[in-house]
TrEMBL record:
One cellular-component annotation, GO: plasma membrane
PROSITE patterns (UniProt xref): HIS_KIN, RESPONSE_REGULATORY
Reactions mediated catalytically: ATP + protein L-histidine = ADP + protein N-phospho-L-histidine
Protein name: histidine kinase
Residue span(s) of domain Histidine kinase: 470-688
Compartment annotation: Cell membrane
List of residues that carry 4-aspartylphosphate: D784
Leading EC class: transferase
Organism of derivation: Paenibacillus contaminans
Main location (coarse class): membrane
EC number of the protein: 2.7.13.3
Amino acid sequence: MRCRLFEWSQVSTIMGEALIVKGIGYVKNRKTLTLIMIAVTLLTTYFVLHSFRVFDSNTFVAKNGVLSLQHWDWQDKKTIALDGEWDFYPNELIVPSPDEDVFERYKNNRQSIPVPAAWDRYRTENATPYGTGTYRLLIHVPKDDRYGVKLNTIRNANKVYVNGEELGSAGIPSKSTEEYRFDYKKYVVLENSKNKQIELVLLVANYDYAVGGIVNSLYFGPADQILAKQGREKFIEAFLIAGYFLFSFIYFTTYLQHKRKFRYELYFSLFSLAQAVHISTINERWIYLLFPELSPSSQLGIQAISLTLFVLFFLLFVYHFFNMSASKRIVTALSAILGFQALAVCVLNMTIDLMVKVPFPLIQLIVSGTTAIGYVYIFIMLLKAYKQKTDESDYVLIIVFAFAVYGILLAIVLLFDVDIEIPSLLLFLIMVMSLALLMSHRSQQAYNKVEELSNELLEFDRMKDEFLVKTSHELGTPLHGIMNLSQSLLEGEEGPLKRKQQESVILIHSVSRRLAGLVKELLFISKIKQGEVSFTSRPIEIRMIEEVLAEIAYVMPPAPSVQLINTIPENSPLVYTDEQKLKQVFFNLIYNAIKFTKQGTITISAQIIEEQMHISVEDTGPGIAVEYHDLIFTTFYQVESSRSRESEGLGLGLSITKKIVESAGGRIWVTSDIGKGSCFTFTIPLATNQQLFEHNEINNHEMNEQVTSAQMKNREMKQPQVILPTKVKGSKPYTILVVDDEPANLKVLINRLHSLQYSVIAVGSGQEALDIIETEKVDLIILDLMMPHMTGYEVCKTIRQDQDLVDLPIIILTAAGQLSDLVVSFQLGANDYLQKPVNLKELEMRIESLLLMKKSAQDALEHELSYFYTQITPHFLYNTLNSIIMLSWTDQQKTQTALEHLSTYFRGKLDYQKQRSLIPLEEEIQLVKAYLSIEQMRFEERLHIEYNIDETIQTYIPAMTLQPLVENAVCHGISKSKNGGTLRLTIEREQQHIQITIEDNGVGIPLDKQQELLRGRNERLGFTNPFRKLSLIKGTRFQMNSEVGKGTTIIIHMLEIKDNRQLF
């Protein structure tokens, strides 16, 4: 029947016997491999010879249409194959009768035909496989009993009569093609013998298969034995079908468990499923038993589709299992062809009944051609896989060898139409099991490798921890050395530093502190793993998060479309934990949420569940994939940058958070959906009544020693209110400005600073602080970060527009302890941070350090100005004395006057006991006038002087600044002009600055010379020296405009300095 073409896949199962060895052990050497291949060859040869009945010792063979079984011992041989010579009536469908011998009328048409065999050359002279015919066999049995006949492949429609009674049929055999209906089922008929004889008649018709007639043996025997034989074959097929379904389910589940990582598991599952369906459509046709409404045409369609899909998925399985063994293009092309073929057969069979309307030989040709090509390429892939010489090459060699044997068997099946169905199906299952074992072997190898790597990773992790501890200690020593050395340089212990040097040292100090913070985190990770981190737990209010949340959100503001929401109730009970550690947990989680949320909300909530506080930080960010939920709490692990706005940090935050929470007796977890956001939840134990009582007892004894934010609020009710602004005079020459909106905090800080003999000014807002700075001399500011109306950050930003880190140091008080790790000091404009509640001893040390830094910077500037002063003094004297000498030759009276002007310089400028870096502007003007008087005596009418000076201006400037510039204008500008010129000195106010203009109409300065002068590349001390001095003074700008032949104008913009110590 038609099923034979679609049973190709059964033959390929021969390769399975080669892999059965995997069930008992793996191939160890070439000798074993050779023995396996010999066994495959012998076993295959046996099946082939058995199919041709070479080993069949059956002496019961039909002759001339009669089979004599009088001497049959059914105890020894249960069933007999009805092989031999049958009577055959070509082109006839003779219906027998139980009452008469109807075959007598057709005796002239009777032929003897071998069974099993194709009827082609016996049916007609044209030897065509198409038409009809009647088979007849008389069986003589040893006794009358109930017997059975098992009918196998009869192509392609048949009807069975026993003793003249119709007992079964497959399809409708008819001489009319319109009435003809094919079917290829196998079935059993049972009947009693009469007079120790059974007449067996088969009416057969075939109009669509390439081979017709009885092509497989029919089996005869006692009814119970035939039924038992049928039952065994059905059981075997049911077992095979169930086995394939089981393989399909197991490997599909494995594929899902492996998170769709190994695609060959999916293809193996689909391959097993397709094979299960295919087996159900052949032999005993279980699909018909399950779905009896299916027509033979539909069953053939399912058979063709399942065969095509079986080859397709087998191809894909081999390709992905032995990857890099084939051309992707060829596999893709074959997959497309097979997939299209399966889809076409499915659609066409449902729409036009493909198996009836289309010539079956054409369908045979197409399906067999594509599947054959697929099998050939599978063989090629296996051969390439073997040539790769991997650790699986021995197994692949067996598969390759089996495939070669399969090719031979395929040719035998096609040429001789032999029957090896059940053995081949069993062997095919063995092959599939062997492939499964091969995959298991690979999985086991992978598992062993993973286990080995896991052990190595555990060792590496231990070594990493040890390395981090040692490295952190080794890094900590030089870092603290850098910090201490930079601190001592800032404080001037090694001598004063120039301003640029101080700014560089401040940066070094700030960066080294941040690095020290990272080292501290690394040490913390190691210590907390080893249980060496101590927790100072006490009852605390959970609402303290408000200040932490506000500071983090301000320093690192969320996106404009993100809203921060705190829903923790005000009356929440106290929790029992370490306050600083809890702040660190809050900081890490909120910072993480802000960093990854671009729009929506960040909500902090809390609820009480079973004597524990469950606190959640929920955001509407991109979410975290389920596979990362555990990994994100791993040290140094960071989710891919696609989740973050930027890549930053070391991946320590969540790891530290988890360890802190667990060490405090809680737990932490995350729930997240991609695209919807994440929710981090952790638990903290509530404070018990006993813990609350013990805490209150401790507070009663330590009330005067420890100041916490909560206690400061309680004290505020008992102490007099602070009247702001408050000024307290101290004996030390430094004034500290304290800015905080909490009067209790201000009171504590004022008392402490006053006890240290500092002058203190206290204000309650940022604007008041800015007003104080405008009117008072302030040396240092202590500033609360979070204040209403104007935050500490905004105050810093405004101050830094005019005064840098050296000019006016600022200490910021923050609730979030990790704030200094989040930003570099320069980003907020602060010199230092202190966490609240403030440790007053630490505050004292920070203040002393910053004031020493400020004093060191001031001394450095004074020394630098003194250097420039000493540099310019000889230059001035040389030029002045030269002028007087020239006058002495022409006018002694003028010489005397000039000496009087020079004596002014000697009295005021060469008194080293009174030498200062800054002098009043009027003294500098006196020196300028004295010099210009001497020069006027020298140049007479060639030099004209004009003064436009605002006498109300009272400021300080660096000594010997204007005189060298004036001298430069006279000597290098006006004196070189043929007709002389005019020098104009103007000093006037311009808004908040003083503008000094020195203008001459001399020869001017070329552009290239101007660039050299402004860049300090020219050796003219009269210009470069004042320029460098002025560049040391904050808020000073220097401008020069000159044109050759027209003169030069120098403009100086500077702030008004009212104190000769106000260098910053």
